[in-house]
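Weekly puzzle thread! Below is a chain. First person to post its structure in token form gets bragging rights.
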Amino acid sequence: MTRRGSLAGLVACWLLAGAGCSPLTTPLSSDEVLQQDPGFSELLTERATITAAIQQLEASLQAERHALLQEIAERRAAVRARERAVQVQVRVLEQRLDPARDLLRATLSEAEQGLRRTEATLKGLRRTEAELTRLVQRTGLPAGQAGASSEVRQWQEQLAAIVRQIPPLEQQRTTLRHQRRLAQAQLRLLAR
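Winning reply:
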């Protein structure tokens, strides 16, 4: 930097300091301003009134916000308590159907066990029927013929007895299947 540039900078600082922009210049107090311009007091009074009104609005808003947040917290707590109470009531109401569900499960179990027994019996009877039919057919004698041996007659009597046993068992199987299907449907309808 040249001597001329630093001299210009010094002059500029001196001019600025003289114009009131220097950090050494202190601002005028409100009393000094009022001494120089007494009409400014009305504006200061208005400013104080506005500031007080703003502070009052902000305080009112803050109080409303606090009250609303408190109310929201209380309502949330009330809703949670009500939800717990309703859940307890729902469980109690649902448990009222438990005896009926248990009875239906027992009915279903009994129907399935009876059906298994009946089907096993039918399967055994049909197997025996087929064996006896083959034995009687090997002899070549029609059922009930007078020349049949006692053994063949015995087979024919057993075959006739088996043939009489099958229709009631088939009817029982149909009934048990219906009971099973009904119990399954009822359990499905009473499901939680």
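Puzzle host: Confirmed. Bonus trivia for everyone else. The CA atoms of residues 139 and 149 lie 9 Å apart.
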